[in-house]
Amino acid sequence: MFAIAILVLMAGYTTAYVASEDVRYLTRSGIEETRILQSRRSIAKLVADSRTPAETRALLKLVLDARDYAATLGLEAKETYTTYADVGRDTLLLVLSASPRNCLCAYLWKYPIVGRIPYKGFFDADMAQRTADKMEARGFDVYLRPSGAFSTLGWFNDPLLSTAMGKDSMELAATVLHEIAHNTLYVKSATPFNESFAQMVGYHGAEEFFRQRADTLDAARARDRWNDEILLSEYYAGLGRRLDSLYQATTDTAAINAGRQAVAAWARGELQDSIGPRLKSYRVGRLTERPINNAQIIAARIYRDRLGLFEQWYQQHGHRVDSAVAALGRLVKGVPGDSVYAVLERATATP
Asked: Which residue range is the domain that position 327 belongs to?
């Protein structure tokens, strides 16, 4: 009887797998996550192993040191980044964002536990491209990009992936602190808040980390990168306001297309004449060549949403990451995602 039940379940799953893209997506995601977890190797052992290349050992030691520093900041490091996984390829994950062409509105995917998320990650490149093509055919702006790291929010002991192991020591430390920040504070259905908070922790945390190591060069680089992120946050906010005004003013397709071209011209001038000269670590480069793509803009803003508010919060708490994180956790505890920014705005308002 048990064998019959198993056969029935397997037949049902096979049918669902063939018929449902969602079942295939979840199956592939589960397989890849299992492979990652099974390929984990202890970073401490790799650092101690003389057979590990010297450059790799130095970077992995930096990861352990950044993890230890995260704990001193009150971040919940748990077992995140105590292991390393070589995924065997340059790109592990592709992330898809989408938006209607006549609205700066993120298409939302809904998941258990984490809530509504304005992007979808794919381990299968073909499936990612098929999904992007289908959404584009339905009239959406789409944006498909690689991602070197992701967090399971503490549900698994996330390893450091080989795709995140660049040679930039500052960015590596900031990535460690950024991802661990997600273990510490996560507001359901508030992705821009969560990612922007983690950006603040990542770069300010990296600045503090390198300063206490007497590494003034990387401390300055982290400070400069955060300066640039705030500038880009202001730029994207201004770009968003112009596009919102355009989309609210008309529903005519021709007028929207013409308006998008006009906004793109403003964006090029703003980047070249106002933002570019003030950037300390980024180069504007080909950003000025991009046409308006709502999905691309939304994806960029997710990590740069009202960063000035987070900077104000950091300054109000003694220019200390540990104090800022602890106080923010208390402030937003139990606050629903759609209200979290209003709460932060009130808390940072000048009396």
From this structure: 13-228+306-348
